[in-house]
Amino acid sequence: MPSHIEWTCEAISIDGDTFIIYIRQNISLDDDFSCGIAWKSPDGEQITIARYNGSSHDHTNKSDGVEFIQQCHIHQTTVEAAQKGWSLENHAILAEAYTCLDEAKLILADDYVISGLVPKVNQLPLSWN
Amino acid sequence: MQLLKESLCTSLCGEVSLRRRKDGRITVSTPFRFPDGDALLIIAEPTATGGVRLSDFGHTLMHLSYSMDVDDIMKPGNRNELFSKILLDHGIAFQNGAFYTEVAVKEIGKAVFSLGQALSQVFDISFLSRARVSSTFYEDLEKAVYKLTPTASIQKDYIVENRSLSADYPIDYRIEFPGTIEPLFLFGVPSNEKAKLATLIIQHWQSEGLKFISFVVYQDQSKISRSDVARLTNVGDQSIASLDAISDMKRKLEHIYRLESSSILGPA
């Protein structure tokens, strides 16, 4: 039995670029989840643009030493990481807008204007009762 | 020496701590990091025998899955050999996607280091991606062949039947599409030597009057000597310069066999 559930698909941008959208959820640990977007270069290499992680693990930025202890965080590819030869997505920022995979997916879809990632039935209307 | 030892012990202890998770489990926090800055996940749980079980709960493979198909590690090949060696070297067990070790409580320090080292090395398998290491070429070729020709009859390391000395002229893949007459003889070519061998084999079977269409997949055509490429191009029917051009292979096969791509060929 695998330890996580995974889902991956390709998405094509309006400009014709290919992107990989992926979603992962650990079966045993609710807070161990991830969803992200990567650009697929013409030679097949995948370059992560952003990854939305759960709070299962700590994270430390190389650039500024900022640590996230059991906090959701978003990895972002930075020019500095590329210039210094680090893992491109080493830099992360604190994520306070989500606490679970479903919420992270909504934010990923919103941030990168990905249509079809979240079924419309999940997009409940806001109510002010 | 004593002062150095005390400083080292204090420093190491400062880097390792235990933290209670929201679900009640205990995380062992260490300085071990993946290249993207994420910490390795190590969770400690008591065992029935009074010891402690340290496990990554499947986090490492999930992390690895962002950049590669983790199923490739479990298939026979270079990645799997490396994977097995890492487990053996560090005395780590693997079950249902999780890495773990069980030790007596007094041995937890050593076990944390062993598990941390093993998890880091397992992650390094991702560097064995097709773009970086030549030794996975044949594994990647096989994966591409089966993905591209799901409905075809595929014989790997094919030896032509009822012909003398045929074992001296093996075919990497014999692929027969439903409803077609001439099979495809496919050769993977990662080196100059293999280019020469493929040339010789194709020439041999042509001179024997065998009907087939030959197809060459180079690992990287630009790295093969021009004279070897020229000879192979002259005797062979079709080729692609690398596995990155697999969509071109699909197009060429459709053209050769007039295949309905949606029903006979798989995705490129």
Key structural traits:
heterodimer, A: 129 residues, mainly beta, two-stranded antiparallel ribbon, 8 strands, 13% helix, globular, B: 268 residues, alpha+beta, 6-stranded antiparallel beta sheet, 5-stranded mixed beta sheet, 10 helices, 11 strands, 19% strand, elongated
Question: Summed up, what is this model?
Answer:
The complex is a heterodimer of chains A (129) and B (268). Chain A has 129 residues and is mainly β.
Task: Report what the structure shows.
- The complex is a heterodimer of chains A (129) and B (268).
- Chain A is mainly β and 129 residues long.
- Chain A is built from two helices and eight strands, in the order βββββββαβα.
- In chain A, a hairpin with a 6-residue loop joins strand 2 and strand 3.
- In chain B, strand 10, helix 8 (226-235) and strand 11 (238-240) form a beta-alpha-beta unit.
- In chain B, helix 4 (78-90) packs antiparallel against helix 5 and helix 7 (192-207) runs parallel beside helix 8 (226-235).
- The model of chain B has no long low-confidence stretch (mean pLDDT 89).
- At the A-B interface, strand 2, strand 3, strand 4 and strand 5 of A face helix 2 of B.
Number of E strands of chain A: 8
Number of helices of chain B: 10
Unreliably modeled segments of chain B: none
Structural class by secondary-structure content of chain B: alpha+beta
Task: Give the proportion of residues in helices of chain A.
Answer: 10-25%
Order of helices and strands of chain B: HEEEEHHHEEHHEEEHEHEHH
Largest sheet of chain A: 6 strands, antiparallel
The number of helices of chain A is 2
| Portion in strands of chain A | 35-45%
- Main beta sheet of chain B: 6 strands, antiparallel
* Number of E strands of chain B: 11
How much strand of chain B? 15-25%
How is the topology of this model organized?
The complex is a heterodimer of chains A (129) and B (268).
Chain A: E1 4-12, E2 18-26, E3 33-40, E4 46-53, E5 59-60, E6 67-68, E7 73-76, H1 79-84, E8 91-94, H2 101-111
Antiparallel strand pairs in A: 1-2, 2-3, 3-4, 4-7, 5-6, 7-8
Chain B: H1 2-15, E1 17-20, E2 26-29, E3 43-46, E4 52-55, H2 59-64, H3 71-74, H4 78-90, E5 93-95, E6 98-103, H5 108-124, H6 137-148, E7 153-158, E8 171-176, E9 184-189, H7 192-207, E10 213-218, H8 226-235, E11 238-240, H9 246-257, H10 261-264
Helix pairs in contact in B: 4-5, 7-8
